[in-house]
Specification:
Layout (H helix, E strand, L loop, with lengths): L20 E3 L2 E3 L6 E5 L6 E6 L3 H20 L2 H17 L1 H12 L3 H21 L6 E3 L7 E8 L2 E5 L7 H13 L2 E5 L5 H13 L7 E4 L5 H12 L3 E7 L2 H11 L5 E5 L4 E5 L5 H12 L10 E7 L3 H13 L19 H16 L3 E4 L7 H4 L14 E4 L6 H4 L6 E7 L2 H9 L3 E2 L1 E5 L3 H10 L4 E4 L14 E2 L2 E2 L12 E8 L3
Parallel strand pairs: 7-8, 7-10, 8-9, 10-11, 12-13, 12-18, 13-16, 15-16, 18-19
Antiparallel strand pairs: 1-2, 3-4, 5-6, 6-22, 11-21, 14-15, 17-20
GO molecular function, one term: succinate-semialdehyde dehydrogenase (NAD+) activity
Protein name: Succinate-semialdehyde dehydrogenase, mitochondrial
Pathway: Amino-acid degradation; 4-aminobutanoate degradation
Length: 506
């Protein structure tokens, strides 16, 4: 039997640990009392029984957000900015506790989790400033005595559907611009990691954000989650959906939203190419791959999924990467020195395992890892080993282009290396996918830097770096990786409308 873990005992401020939803300023369970168990992916221990809310409570949250909208949107941009800056300050104050909650429910190492909290807080600071700069304009009219003015206004109630891999930062990246613009929000917390969303609701309550402005609903995977998405998409009181998740779910949400013609912004699946040219600094390139591929145990939408290495440096690069990966410490993220935590659930482990076995069956060789793994920190926890979700960080070489890993996003700690010969060849192979979120390459050639960056069919390119995510940049993709941008100077525009006011008789 799995043990129960007392998460509150790990926190300086135990009140940040909540296991109820947050609707209209009140902490509530499911109306019918239904719950689902939330477990620690590193140990299998139960953390809480979470509310398994029906569709009617999602509608209740939408009603609360709609009722709160007039007063919140009537505040000045400076007043809303002040709320966001106070919230930013509380996040910085509670970074240890917020990081602990994130680590225990998601699995990523504590140091990495605290880094996510800092990243999440940066969206509050950025949008507190951006909210003050939502400028309108005047447009000269061809008609005498007429003036055209364009102003920006909040779009209305926003449904925010967030993923489990960045359970804090993906909330702040959506919520901060929405609140700064004058919108109110209903957040559908991910079933795997709802505690981080609820901790943010606690902080919103503490800074005095009025009831109904921020609402958080929870439910497990399955019929009720599908019903929650349907309510957000079909309810005419919701004006905007912002979703981060898989491309198939994005297609479904887009279809479901068609009856109410909502404004949508989707950040969907990726299959990032990471290219190492023969003139690259290999030590720097290896560090770039590690930063991109193995952060969050490979469970990021922008992580390196297909690593293309020029044939001249292929063997040298593969050996350097393998040596670095061998040095990783895998285990419970709360254990000091751990650099790689578990995957979020068994489905993730099974997918990585399937990709490795398929590649090996087609001639690939394993340099490091390749198997499920139960670290001593998990096996000594009192939980059954089968309940933990670890997979060894893995490097495979001589990967055939027909392998699953070449066309499917792995979402795990698997680094497959493909060999290439020419610039034209690798650009074609990098672009031969239906998605286009991010890509990376390493080279010392300035001309190549510009040519390749412009030729890659993605929304974001990292040149000689494996890290691109920042609050100040437009984050998003092309093709079936979605549309719209989060962060950057235009991120707040996703939550606003432009209104023309034409005045005659002047």
């Amino acid at each position: 039997m799995s043990k129960t873990q007392d998460l509150s005992a790990l926190l300086s401020d135990a009140d940040l640990f909540r296991s109820q939803g947050y609707i209209n300023g009140k902490w509530v369970g499911a109306t019918d009392g239904a719950t689902f168990p939330l477990t620690n992916p590193a140990t299998g221990a139960k953390l809480a029984d979470m509310p398994h809310m029906p569709r009617g409570q999602v509608a209740e949250a939408i009603d609360a957000a709609k009722a709160a909208l007039p007063a919140w949107s009537a505040l000045t941009a400076y007043q809303r900015s002040a709320y966001l800056l106070k919230l930013h300050g509380l996040m910085e104050q509670h970074v240890q506790d917020l990081g602990t909650i994130l680590c225990v429910e998601n699995g990523k190492p504590l140091t990495e989790a605290k880094g996510e909290i800092a990243y999440g807080a940066s969206f509050l600071q950025w949008n507190a400033a951006e909210g003050l700069r939502t400028y309108g304009q005047t447009i000269p009219s061809p008609f005498p005595g007429t003036r055209n003015m364009v102003i920006k206004q909040p779009i209305g109630v926003c449904g925010l559907i967030t993923p489990w891999n960045f359970p804090n930062a993906m909330i702040t990246r959506k919520m901060a611009p929405a609140l700064a613009a004058g919108c109110t929000v209903v957040i559908k917390a991910p079933a795997e990691t709802p505690l981080s969303a609820l901790a943010m609701a606690v902080l919103c309550e503490r800074v005095g954000i009025p009831a109904g402005v921020v609402n958080v609903v929870c439910m497990d995977k399955g019929d009720r989650e599908a019903a929650a998405g349907l309510e957000l998409c079909e309810n005419p009181k919701v004006s905007k959906i912002s979703f981060t998740g898989s491309t198939p779910v994005g297609r479904l949400l887009m279809q479901q939203s068609s009856s109410t013609l909502k404004k949508l912004s989707f950040e969907l699946g990726g299959n990032a190419a990471f290219i190492i040219f023969d003139d690259a600094d290999l030590e720097t390139a290896v560090n770039g791959v590690i930063a991109s591929k193995f952060r969050a145990a490979g469970q990021t939408c922008v992580c390196a999924n297909r690593i293309f290495v020029h044939s001249k440096v292929y063997t040298q690069f593969a050996n350097l990467l393998a040596e670095k990966v061998k040095a990783f410490k895998v285990g419970d993220g709360m254990t000091e020195g751990v650099t790689i935590g578990p995957l979020v659930n068994q489905r993730g482990v099974e997918k990585v395992e399937r990709h490795v076995k398929d590649a090996v069956s087609k001639g690939a060789k394993i340099l490091v890892g390749g198997e499920r793994f139960t670290p001593s920190s998990a096996s000594n926890s009192g939980s059954e080993a089968k309940e933990t979700c670890f997979f060894q960080p893995t490097v495979i070489i001589d990967v055939d282009p027909s392998s699953y890993v070449a066309s499917e996003e792995t979402f795990g700690p698997l680094a497959p290396l493909f060999k290439f010969e020419t610039d034209e060849e690798v650009i074609q192979r990098a672009n031969s996918t239906e998605v286009g979120l991010a890509a990376y390459f390493f080279t010392k050639d300035l001309g190549r830097s510009n040519r390749v960056a412009e030729a890659l069919e993605v929304g974001m390119v990292g040149v000689n770096t494996g890290v691109i995510a920042q609050a100040c940049i437009p984050f998003g993709g092309v093709k079936q990786s979605g549309f719209g941008r989060e962060g950057g100077p235009g991120g707040i525009n996703e939550f606003q409308i432009e209104k023309l006011i034409t005045i005659g008789g002047i």
